[in-house]
């Protein structure tokens, strides 16, 4: 695992839902003078995505270097037309891992850097907030519940290095060129005497950072003293994270899990298979049903917070390329915590007594779902998922 390096001197703004995120992103692209780098998993074909596309194409036409990375799976059927539109405008676009030529890994990251001065990172794809992201475009009752952050300051250099390296690695590089990239990514951060927020870029890939995101969570949970609120749509973590949640609750930390449900029946059954043990240890579980919960965020105590793309499942923790930001700042943590507390209020708390009294067919369903999921993940992760 690469060492977690914190950069100081950052201005970090929390962006809640696509309404805030896309307004900030598009404005930054419209003001770009030299370079726009964007990496995303989903790039839809809706009105919101078209506004982003228009901003990117306009920037390229006025001479800005625009490079876009889209995951081959996440891009969907409209990717070919999108690449044509980009090419006509002068936007450079590369697809991540087409036809699984480089294994199962997908880029699930959502990163943007404009003019090396402002960066964006979080969980929000290029897709309209009010439609489902499962390809069916089902209208949502309320905007998708998700977060990103806008960053100005020293951390932007780390974001720029990471997304630039991803772009280069997707081209044709010789072995020595790839080694030089790895060395460059290990360079120490720029220091600053003007301390604002401390923040670290936490990457998961299949070379340098195979377990960095998981270990960041484990360290934070291991040192938690009072509270830990974690929100995630897909809950199927390995044993280490489950044990960390349980141990924190058992030593008196108020641990609350805010989980998205209703998307995939199998995923819900897998998550529910963990409920008895977690609830018995004192972990509180809340199911969010108001709209689609897509946020991958957490606040631990009063000064540690994270926003990013990594789910609590086998694919995110052991297969895909992911990107989170960890922020050490009480003000930022309090801001995110207010949203999480509202999310808990809007959710339904799982009653431990009801879980204990589940009928045997439901318990069997949960157990079979767990066994199936564990088997598939162990094959996909070459035995890493436990």
TrEMBL record:
Question: Residue ranges of the PLD phosphodiesterase domain?
Answer: 103-130, 289-316
What's the catalysed reaction?
Answer: 2 a 1,2-diacyl-sn-glycero-3-phospho-(1'-sn-glycerol) = a cardiolipin + glycerol
Which keywords are on file for this protein? Cell membrane, Lipid biosynthesis, Lipid metabolism, Membrane, Phospholipid biosynthesis, Phospholipid metabolism, Transferase
The superkingdom of the source organism is Bacteria
Q: Which GO terms describe its molecular function?
A: transferase activity
Q: Which CDD domains match?
A: PLDc_CLS_1, PLDc_ybhO_like_2
Give the signal peptide, or none.
Answer: none
Q: Which residues form the active site?
A: 108, 110, 115, 294, 296, 301
Q: What is its main location?
A: membrane
Which Pfam families would you find in this protein's record? PLDc_2
Identify the InterPro entries for this entry: Cardiolipin_synth_ClsB, PLD-like_dom, PLipase_D/transphosphatidylase
Q: What is its EC number?
A: 2.7.8.-
Q: Where in the cell is it found?
A: Cell membrane
Q: Which family does it belong to?
A: Belongs to the phospholipase D family. Cardiolipin synthase subfamily. ClsB sub-subfamily.
HAMAP family named among the record's database cross-references: Cardiolipin_synth_ClsB
> Which PANTHER family does the record match to this protein?
CARDIOLIPIN SYNTHASE, PHOSPHOLIPASE D
Q: What does this protein do?
A: Catalyzes the phosphatidyl group transfer from one phosphatidylglycerol molecule to another to form cardiolipin (CL) (diphosphatidylglycerol) and glycerol.
Protein name per Swiss-Prot or TrEMBL? Cardiolipin synthase B
- Gene name as annotated: clsB
